[in-house]
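Batch manifest, entry 17 of 40.
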Amino acid sequence: MSARDQILHATLRLIGEQGIGAVTNRAVARAAGVSLGSLTYHFPSQEDLLREALHTFVEQEIARITAYVQALAESGIAPVEAADEVEKAVIGVAHDPEQLANLELHLHAARNPALRETSTRSVEAYDRLAAAILTSLGIPDAERHAPATVAMLYGLAVRRLATGDTTATGTADAFRLLLLGALPRP
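Output type: structure tokens
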């Protein structure tokens, strides 16, 4: 792994474990196992570091989810059963520090215009992914329903983190409800 990647992963871990306030150049360099000079060479400002950490997380998450969805699509799973698979997938990553860092960075972007563009692009990428998933499940007008799907999953993530729920209980039911509401009526 390159020094740049080590720095980005260390930043995400620090944010997830201690919050954005813990992201100082010295703390990140120490956590990444790189010199302070290497950190500032790759990321001249903290805004650059936070923006790239968010971008990196989202790109990796989209690749992970896309691979998972492709496997589901190839299995020919029905929309109602897909909801159970989504819940299983959520349980696997629900309490990773990077998941918490992702949410915290999006909230930070609401107060920091320098991060807002990256946050917006990230949400748009999740919307496109959700639309592709909904389309593969046979949901008509998937692009219209994708933002609600993303918002629901983000909201459930905040709920899990706030309550300490490690089971992702209710995720399948919520996703199923959304899918069934979006399916055409006979």
